[in-house]
Amino acid sequence: MSDTPLPEPLLDDDQLDRLDDFLASERVSEDALDLIGTHGFLVALAVSPREVPPATWVAELFQGEPSFTDDGERESILGLLEQLRHNAIVALEQGLLPELPFELSLDDISPEETPIGDWCAGFMEGVFLDEPGWFEEDEEAAATLLLPFMALSGLFDDEPDMAEFTTDTARLEGLVRQLPELVLDLYLHYRVPPETPKPMPRKKKPAGRRKGSKRQP
Length: 217
Known about the structure:
Pfam families: UPF0149. This is YecA family protein. The protein has about 220 residues and is mainly alpha-helical. About 55% of the residues lie in helices and about 0% in strands. The protein contains nine helices and no strands. The longest helix has 23 residues.
């Protein structure tokens, strides 16, 4: 049997259905993220090296204020979104892999035509909210770690440097299977500080004659 733990669900099926129904309703802007994109977006916020204020990410996710029926519905929906983000942090902090809301296979379909592409595009939208936070510490390492998400998102297909990468279907298929592990790698890179060596205790100097003391005969 494999020792690899099963991916950790970030919300249960009923909670995901509740969010899906709301995000797909006419009370939400057509430009808002759907459930799959929202999932990727909130996982990115869980990984993000700096906290993004809720007012900022809620406005970005919905692209405007939804038409909530009442304060109760508003509290319920926003609570589910925050719960998903928080559960992702808790799982990653424990070294668990997040369960993603799709099969980890492209089946010879272009990523941007699948939920995988939608999820990675949502993830990158979360990155775009605070690009300096993701890139200012070590731009090269950040670009390397984010490359799989960029390639699968379909948002960068027009960039010459990405063309060779995105046309390699075998490589993309491998990245899809590794997505949960890649999320954990990012979290460990940004959120877990490197261990610092413990300070060595200072050696005691041999006790010398105190100033002003007299040598005994």
